[in-house]
From TrEMBL:
<dbReference type="InterPro" id="IPR050109">
    <property type="entry name" value="HTH-type_TetR-like_transc_reg"/>
</dbReference>
<keyword id="KW-0804">Transcription</keyword>
<dbReference type="InterPro" id="IPR009057">
    <property type="entry name" value="Homeodomain-like_sf"/>
</dbReference>
<dbReference type="InterPro" id="IPR001647">
    <property type="entry name" value="HTH_TetR"/>
</dbReference>
<dbReference type="Pfam" id="PF00440">
    <property type="entry name" value="TetR_N"/>
</dbReference>
<dbReference type="GO" id="GO:0003700">
    <property type="term" value="F:DNA-binding transcription factor activity"/>
</dbReference>
<keyword id="KW-0238">DNA-binding</keyword>
<feature type="domain" description="HTH tetR-type">
    <location>
        <begin position="19"/>
        <end position="78"/>
    </location>
</feature>
<feature type="region of interest" description="Disordered">
    <location>
        <begin position="195"/>
        <end position="224"/>
    </location>
</feature>
<keyword id="KW-0805">Transcription regulation</keyword>
<protein>
    <submittedName>
        <fullName>Regulatory protein, tetR family</fullName>
    </submittedName>
</protein>
<feature type="DNA-binding region" description="H-T-H motif">
    <location>
        <begin position="41"/>
        <end position="60"/>
    </location>
</feature>
<feature type="compositionally biased region" description="Polar residues">
    <location>
        <begin position="208"/>
        <end position="224"/>
    </location>
</feature>
<dbReference type="InterPro" id="IPR036271">
    <property type="entry name" value="Tet_transcr_reg_TetR-rel_C_sf"/>
</dbReference>
<dbReference type="Pfam" id="PF21597">
    <property type="entry name" value="TetR_C_43"/>
</dbReference>
<dbReference type="InterPro" id="IPR049445">
    <property type="entry name" value="TetR_SbtR-like_C"/>
</dbReference>
<dbReference type="GO" id="GO:0000976">
    <property type="term" value="F:transcription cis-regulatory region binding"/>
</dbReference>
Length: 224
């Protein structure tokens, strides 16, 4: 019996008004998830977007599909941000700024990742988005290393793990975004003052530690 070689027809592009509604729904859903978590009311999301519930369900037949679209949209925005920052003159600042954007993305998810794992409509979404973020950050880190603004032994996995750990620690706090940004700044800059008075000199223990570091091992970050 010959195999069926038919393929599904390509999806038709959205009309301009449908595209506007889709974008409004994504923005409203992202805002609602940041405020209320992944169980935010679909009716409230439709109201914020200025559309009816029928329009929401026409674009997103299930809550899961809406949440996946929100997550994918955020990841694409982070990748676009990385590309913009890569064109800047200060690779160290670019990497630090992007890591702060990743932290902002993480603390605004509020249970989104857990909800996505419960019953993914697109089983490849997690791996795809992880690869996108990793690749975007790896490019910024490579530029920072070339500019001697990042240690050669630091990987993008190290940095993303650090950001994730910080965000998990503060996610239940009322001002999680500000606290995550402060902790990330401390992690990137260290706890020593930026510039010690020249006449005082380094603490003997600090001088010993500094002299024991291999050349080029320092990581420098300029807070944006």
């Amino acid at each position: 019996m010959p195999s069926d070689s038919r393929t599904s027809p390509p999806a038709r592009p959205m009309r301009a008004d449908a595209r506007r509604n889709y974008d409004r729904l994504l923005a409203a859903a992202a805002e609602a998830v940041a405020e209320q978590g992944a169980e935010a009311s679909l009716e409230e999301i439709a109201r914020r977007a200025g559309v009816g519930s029928a329009t929401l369900h026409r674009h997103f037949p299930s809550r899961q599909q809406l949440l996946e679209a929100v997550f994918r949209d955020k990841v694409e925005a982070l990748c676009a941000r990385a590309a913009d920052l890569a064109a800047g003159p200060d690779p160290g600042r670019a990497l630090a700024t992007w890591l702060r954007a990743v932290a902002g993305h993480a603390v605004s998810n509020r249970g989104l990742a857990t909800a996505l794992m419960r019953g993914a409509h697109d089983p490849t979404l997690g791996a795809t988005c992880h690869a996108m973020i990793t690749n975007a950050g790896a490019g910024l880190l490579a530029r920072a290393r070339e500019a001697n603004a990042a240690r050669p032994d630091v990987s993008i996995t190290d940095l993303l793990t650090l950001v994730n750990a910080i965000c998990l620690t503060v996610e239940q706090e009322p001002d999680a975004a500000a606290h995550a940004d402060r902790l990330l700044t401390l992690a990137l800059t260290g706890v020593h003052p930026v510039a010690a008075p020249a006449e005082s000199g380094p603490h003997p223990a600090d001088a010993t530690k500094q002299n024991s570091l291999p050349s080029g091992s320092a990581m420098t970050w300029n807070a944006p």
